[in-house]
Amino acid sequence: MTKLKTHLFICSNGPDRAEKCGGKNSEELRQKLKALCKTESFAGEIRVNSAGCLGQCEHGIASVFYPQAEWNLNLKSTDVDFMMKKIRKNIEQ
Ligand code: FES
Predict the structure, then answer these.
(1) Ligand 1 pocket mutation pick from 9, 10, 11, 16 by most atoms within 8 angstroms of CB
(2) Of 68, 75, 87, 91, which alpha carbon lies 20 to 30 A from 3's?
(3) Does the C-beta of 48 come closer than 6 Å to ligand 1?
């Protein structure tokens, strides 16, 4: 069984509120990352899950990797390449 190396949580709170992560299309970012990860050799080593409010609403879209405790804030739904680089880094650690 493949060991999970990192778990990415992306806030999906407030899809109907423009100032919240969900209102900034965080779910679109999550779905893109999830789909891309499924095509990679490390597919079984990562989970990309939605999270409730991470307490960083003013810096949304907010995300955090566990167990690395690495935050990535102020993301846009188009930050797919940026986040894929972060994912690869956390897988290779
Ligand atoms: S709504 Fe995303 S961190 Fe609060």
Answers:
(1) 11
(2) 75
(3) no
